[in-house]
Design goal:
Elements: H1 2-7, E1 16-18, E2 23-24, E3 36-37, E4 44-46, H2 73-83, E5 92-95, E6 98-101
Antiparallel strand pairs: 1-4, 2-3, 5-6
Amino acid sequence: MIEDLEERGLLDNVLVILMSEFGRTPNVNSRIGRDHWPDCWSLAMAGCGIKQGAVVGKTSGDGAWVDGTGYDIGDLFHTIFSVLGIDSRRERYLYKGQKLAIAHDDCKPIQEVMS
């Protein structure tokens, strides 16, 4: 899909995100499965100003913990909005009459993945 978007000249205008809601524990549980693990997970992004081939962050040897600088989901949202040209510091949404931020105020875009 990404190659097709690039061949058609659309990749600069489309943001592709591959992610899940959780990572998985590095160990198999008693039911021969792996439980949700919110402390460490991966995703891939392409297009729309995302730096090609950038790898940001790393995990511990067993994949259980972030090793070094970690990022919050709010950092991801600020990054997404930034590459889409949306000012995530100014934009708000209305919920039951209350204006709320579209991304956590204490987070910021992840510069290492942006071209």
